[in-house]
Task: structure prediction
Amino acid sequence: MAKVRVKYFGRLRELLGIKEEEYDAYGITVADLLLKYVPERHRNKSKEWMETIFMTVRDEVAISKDGLPILKNYIVLVNGRNVKLTYRLENGDEVAILPPVGGGYFEN
Result:
């Protein structure tokens, strides 16, 4: 089985109570990981997980015209690269789920 390491940051780390974990995830997509694998492992937090990371409509994950779930400004990196939700995970991949970034200071 392929091992994939998933790292959580910000609100997701607080929600799940962990920094990272491993999944057996041979050939699944990033969407599969986020929609199925993480919620199944964290059943007591699955509803809040879905509402935190995805756009929802009436407690259902919103789906784009191309059939993929719509993230709430989260960035998903695989091995340090921004990837689409259709990316197929391979053995040894490291997935980082980064929260929306905001703030900063601008001076004229």
